[in-house]
Amino acid sequence: MSANNDHLPGFVTLLRKIGRTGLGAIQNRGELVAVEWQEENARLTEMLVWAFGLAFLAMTGVLLLTATIILLFPANSEFTSSRHSRCSISPARSRHGSMLKRF
To answer: Which of 21, 57, 70, 93 sits at 20 to 30 Å (Cα–Cα) from 7?
Structure first.
């Protein structure tokens, strides 16, 4: 019995072991690629959520700034009325550089 254990493995047995090792390595790489793909998808989804949140906050800020300006300077206020009544573009001089005529 001990004589059977001392012999070297055959060529076919070595090819089988190399094949199994190669297939195991390919399977391992495939699993790593799948995990990396899932992580990249999760990262991209997170970035999109942050981008939409940032865009929403930016639009909200612009809306708040606009509302603040409208409330501070209403259309019938003295500031806008006096400003527009003092300055106007003279029709005679409009083709010569749009000079302002003051009343």
So the answer is: 21
pTM: 0.51
The answer to whether residue 1 is domain-embedded is no
Are 99 and 90 a contacting pair, CB within 8 Å?
A: yes
**Three-state SS for 99?**
coil
H or E segment and range at residue 88: strand 87-89
* pLDDT tens, position by position, 24-72: 999 999 999 999 999 999 999 999 999 999 999 999 999 999 999 989 9
DSSP string computed for 18-63: HHHHHHHHHHHHHHHHHHHHHHHHHHHHHHHHHHHHHHHHHHHHHH
The whole-angstrom distance between residue 14's C-alpha and the CA centroid of its chain comes to: 52
Question: Does residue 29 lie in a domain region?
Answer: yes
Beta-bridge mates of residue 89: 100
